Description:
CATH class of the largest domain in chain A: Alpha Beta
CATH superfamily of the largest domain in chain A: HUPs
Order of helices and strands of chain A: EEEHEHEHEHEEEEEEEHEHEHEHEH
Helix content of chain A: 25-40%
Structural class of chain A: alpha/beta
Largest sheet of chain B: 9 strands, mixed
Mean pLDDT of chain B: 92
Low-confidence stretches of chain B: none
Oligomer: heterodimer
Number of helices of chain B: 6
Radius of gyration of chain A: 22 Å
CATH superfamily of chain B: HUPs
CATH class of chain B: Alpha Beta
Amino acid sequence: MKILVYAETNSGSLTEQSFSTIAAALEISNGTGDDSSVEVLVCAADTANIAASISGIDSVICLQHPNLTPYTSDAHALAICHAISEITPDLVLFTYSSAGIDQAPFLSAKTSMPLISACVELSVDGDTIKATAQLYGGKLVAEVEADLPAIASIVPGSMAGKVMESGSNAPEIKTLQVPTSLDKNRTVFVSASEPDTSTVNIAAAERILCVGRGIGSADAIDDMKALADALGAELASSRPVIDAGWLPKERQIGKSGNTVKPKVYISLGVSGAPEHIEGMAGAELIIAINEDPAAPIFQVAHYGATVDLFDFAEAMSEKLAE
Amino acid sequence: MHIAVIIRLVPDLSEEIEFSEDETDVDREYIDLMLNEFDQHALEEAILLKERTGAKVTAIAVNSDGIKKQLRMAWALGADDLVLIEANELDPRDVAATARHIKAAVEDLSVDLVLTGVQTPEDVVGQLSPYLAGCFGWPSVNAVSGIVAEENTVLVNQEYSGGKVSVIRVELPCVIGVQAASQPPRYVSGSRLREAAAVEIKEVTPNNNPDAKLSARVVALREPETGEQAVIFDGDIDEVATKILDIISNQQNG
């Protein structure tokens, strides 16, 4: 069977997450036992250097057009649909990311291939894929099956941790003819921005106090800031706190915010959705306070307590003041 | 500009989890349903666009228990029209069937911009916004925070991992999956909600329901297998705080 991985690029190279999805494809391919192949689709304005950085797979399929860099959804959707019709893969893999959300369901609608979203495990059994998918912010998983040909999006870093070995068999590089439809792009890139680290850079912090939805309102922020100061920590938060406007975006940890690796990470009222865990699982010491014993944050935490976070914060503040 | 906002109810598993008898779904009769958080942001963004440009906003939902109340809430917040789509025996997780029903309803409304939440907690077979865009053949941008209307286009901020953001100009008509509104969703007053009780909800039954497409099958739903679990402290709050402070200082010294 033929597995095709859609690769995401950033500043002229493959993203770390895409390498992890390619590794997942290799694991799936090895599990099938027969002569299955892994191909990687690169859609960019200049594909040569990106293609050269990929090894350990069978082939790299290149689609090159000025409208493909920087990434915009419509241009990439046209390129992917064209590539799928040319290559006719059995399984198409995306990364569960912003671009993966743009592309995988769109392709499913266009081709009628079934899609399984947010997979953390995936194997092939005959003409069927069997996947474990994350649901409800990591609280539950679903066992899902679909008939091939099919599409799946893979949660970054959830499957094979091992990236491809560089230098192993160089893949064949194939270039696809670009469809003329790509000249007309309905999504036009205007500008890009990186997070502003001039006021605070939580990615560099050694200690982080991270508050979640559980703090309830913006009124709690001042006390939390005081506790963070007493701990010698930077105050950070999960996404709901940012979306509610209680803290500025540069303090966000998770998929669409910062990835942090502090020595100490303490969370108060953070449930631990997969999108958040992606951004903090690398912390050396993780301590979680959440009244819900089923909160997924306890799956990655080293220590925890199922106590009221305000009582805990108050007790901590008193101890630190002593 | 005519904006359609699609709102959905999702199970609230923050208190309790109860599985359906065959354990392929949660028990939707038993578990409380709540408005999908991202849909709340999509609705707020639609109202903000209406305030800035005079756009018309239609709130749309597929029928389910309790959804009428949410539609009325959308009106109280500023939506002009409310549309309820009748769909018998529809699995709310079946994004393909949901999209087909919505497409049929939206086509009659001549909509320029469709907004909905970027995801729900139960998108096991994919997300609605890009799926709907695929059905229409329209462009779709997802994980968007903030939309600015222009003539025949919208400017959207698309978020990527690592806090990167791109500004993208999208041709109308299009479908946008909203991650966060430009400002936090507003509250609605009680008097406005009481007024909403009398507002008409237009009910539509799509008649062009094409053959069911092959979709993925959920064969089991369960709690994840956990590896090494956290060491959980309980008891007196002062003791808990002392233990945790010890662990933190040992980490720093060790």
